[in-house]
Each structure stands twice: as C-alpha cells, then as structure tokens.
Amino acid sequence: MAREWWAQIHRAKVSEAHAARTLIRFEQDVFPRIGSRSIGDIESPELLAVLRQITGRGAIETAHRAKDACGQVFRYAIAAGYCQRNPAADLRDALPPPRTKHLAAIVDPQQAAALCADIESYKGHPVTKAALELSALLLLRPGELRRMEWSWVDFDDAMLTVPPNVMKRSRDEKLNGSPHLVPLAPRPLAILSALHGLTGSGAFVFPSVTSPKTRCMSDNTVRSALRRMGYGNDDMTAHGFRAMARTMAAERLGIAPEVIEAQLAHAVPDALGRAYNRTQYLEQRREMMTRWADYLQELRGKVAASGS
What is the set of active-site residues? Predict the structure, then answer.
C-alpha cells in the first residue's frame, strides 16, 4: 500500500528529491518492521514502536516525517477499502517535539554593515565575490542563485525571471507554475553587467570552474567564501542572507511583510493568493529591492567612513 501511494499520489505532488527521501525513510525505517504486516491489522502501539526506534537514534524530525507519511498511506488505504482507521492519527502527541534549528543569519545592522564591508574587500575569485554580493541583494535561495542562467536576465527591463522548475515548489508547481520575478535594482544590475564580461559566453552566470559549459558553481562556494572571511557556521550561512533581508527589511525599512514574503517566494495558503503575490505586488517589490540595495550600500558606507 505504501509503494502504491508513493507511486500514484506522492510522486505526483512533490519533487523527485522529496519523493526519493520519503521512499528511503520507508525502506530504511518502516518496511523492515511492519512492511509485511496487513495494513488493516496495524495498531497505534505497533506504529509507535517503529517511530520510537527512529527517535532513539536522535532523528526526531525524521520520526515526525515518517509518521506523517505513514498517516497518508493509512488514509489512502482507508479510501481504497483496505483498512478502517488511521493509527497514525492517535500519535499526534506521542513523539518528542522536533528541535527547531534555524540557519545562522546576521540581523543586527552593525554586524550586517561589517559583513557588507567584508564582502566589498573580498580578495578571492571575482565570480565568487559577485555571488556573495548578489546573495545579499537578490534574496534568492542558494540553489536558485548558483543555478542562475544568463537567459533569465533582462538587462533592458531590469528583471530576473527564475523558471518555476528550479524553485522550491511542489512537483505540479515546478511543471505548471508561474516563474518568480526578481526586480533588479541599479546595484545588482551593475554587478551582473560586469560579471557578463567574465561568464557571459556560457549559459551559467556562476559556472563551475572545472566544467563551466555544463555545470554551475558548487553549492559549497558561497559557504566556503564566508568561512574564509571569518564567518563560521554559527555566524552566517548562504541561506542566512534571506533571513537577514526578511528581518531587517521589516524592522529597519518598514516594508510590509506580505511584500517581503512575496519577494522571498514563500508559499501562501491558496492559489489565488499566490497569483496575487506574483502580480499585484510587483511594483512594491521593485521599490523594496531598490531600498534594500540602497540600505546595504548605506551600511557599507558607514563602515568605510569610520575607517574600521
């Protein structure tokens, strides 16, 4: 039943990577213990025993994800007439709560100013430096940034168009969703213009050093650059630039949260809301991206003026 649900329902709703992770959880943690049992005979204590073996090794979040996936299998089996109830539903409060660990991000203006100054004085490869700068300016997820292609960049309209298939979305949204629009303020536009002279002959804005024609830069490039600048895992991450913008754009610039969320491409509850965010907020997002770039420039200027 689990494999049938996975093949017919789950794979159609989520990305291939997500579906693969779900199947691995079943095969490693669930199938060896209850995979051969009749689905209608499995009771809550038996499922809980499976999940406790997962939490016993410290994988609390994995246990919660396994419980949720099992619950969906049971609901599917109920609809198909193979069982009468969902034992996973009885385990809502039976597992330890998952530990929330946020990726490190700088949200203090003084620390952000120092970070901007450090990026400005970065002595590494110029393409890596541009990736650092644009990480702070464009609010993209790290994977979206490093996979950026020149075909996405419209210099005349000052717009970056990220195709839906590279976004963090469901499988259907990746195939049929709208692209994500990123208005380009003068500063990131200037960085991209200069970068075009270095990598514009290929497809990728940030190509791999070893295979520039076929691969984009490694997912470790920006993280490693931050480490060389003295920022450890507990100080700042590549993904932390998004959290920095989300917090400081609201607290320091007074930008409406819904505009920030739209620019971060965070999911909203319904399709109508998603469509509204991508269209009606475009001018507000264009203003936001310019104000954010100007604010980072202002912070960097304060460090330079102080001589620190």
Answer: 141, 168, 239, 242, 266, 276
